[in-house]
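Today's session is about reading a structure prediction critically. Students often jump straight to the picture, but the first step is always the sequence itself: look for stretches that repeat, for charged clusters, for runs of hydrophobic residues. Only then move on to the predicted structure, which in these notes is written as discrete structure tokens rather than atom positions. Here is the chain we will use throughout the hour.
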Amino acid sequence: MKLVLLLAGPYSSCQKTRHAWQETCFKQNIELDAIDLDNEKGQALAEQLNLKSFPALIHNNKVIAVGHPDKQKAEKIISDLLTSKQLLMK
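Below is the predicted structure for this chain, in token form.
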């Protein structure tokens, strides 16, 4: 599984959010691609998904979380995502 984290930029709040998602994804063996909005790829993705709020966590071109979660909230979101993915595979 691969997730994309679209960040507003090099702000301290975005860096904390990046760290929370990276740590959570690492624990679950999930690949995380963090992209800044000031990057051409980030701008294209934001336009494609019509995003207005950042940071945004994206899976299969679908926004699954927006904002700055703490570690516990990030772990819950990833756990719920893995559970729903497993249910779809059955």
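Discussion point for the tutorial: Residues 2-89 form a domain with the Glutaredoxin fold (CATH 3.40.30.10).
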